[in-house]
Amino acid sequence: MADIFREIDEEVRRDKAAQFWKKYGWAAVALAVLAVIGMAGWQFWQHQQNQAAAAVGARFEAALKSSRDGDSTQAESILKELAAGAPAGYREIARFRLAAETAKNDPAAGATAFDALANNGSLDQSYRDLARLRAGILRVDLVPYAEIKQALEPLATPQGIWRHSAREFLGVSALKNNLFEDAGRWFDAIVTDPATPQAERQRADLYLALVRGGPVTVQN
């Protein structure tokens, strides 16, 4: 008797399934086709994106090679092209590299290029601060300590992610201007910061030795 009821139940389910397919089968087929098309489109888009990224990467490598080979004109030409039309990530990298390339021949112009990046509100704040740091470093040999202090001191706070380099070049600028007290303060901040990289700490120790020696007196 149980077998009969089970067969009847299965027959009813088959009838319901047939009725459902007859009524909604076209929709199921359409959804399946759309899913296949969607997956194919996604894979094609990914392939296109990967190809575009590879092409941009190759152009960027060409710019770096030109720079290493001493062909600044070619390097700048490629970097300007990428800075204008590359996808977002590469576009920012190209702008930073272009500013650095410009600075090789004209530090003041390079600093101005980094200023433009520092003032670019579309960039993440950490990158804007990096651009501000690079501009300040380029100006260490160009402007008085007061200007370097104004530019880099905000980056030298205990929480600043670029504080180590900012402190080092603040100290260098102060030392160049014979401001030994200021120089010692910045180099001390480097040495006493437990997060300072070892290489930078060693440089700061050397700078502190110069600070302790004081101004060099030339006797006639």
Automatic annotation (TrEMBL):
Membrane topology field: Single-pass membrane protein
GO MF terms, alphabetically ordered: protein-containing complex binding
InterPro entries per record: SecYEG/CpoB_TPR, YfgM
UniProt KW keywords: Cell membrane, Chaperone, Membrane, Transmembrane, Transmembrane helix
Domain Ancillary SecYEG translocon subunit/Cell division coordinator CpoB TPR: 19-146
PANTHER family per record: ANCILLARY SECYEG TRANSLOCON SUBUNIT, UPF0070 PROTEIN YFGM
Transmembrane segments: 24-45
Organism domain of life: Bacteria
Subcellular compartments: Cell membrane; Membrane
Keyword Iron-sulfur: no
The name this protein goes by in its record: Tetratricopeptide repeat protein
One GO cellular component, as annotated: plasma membrane
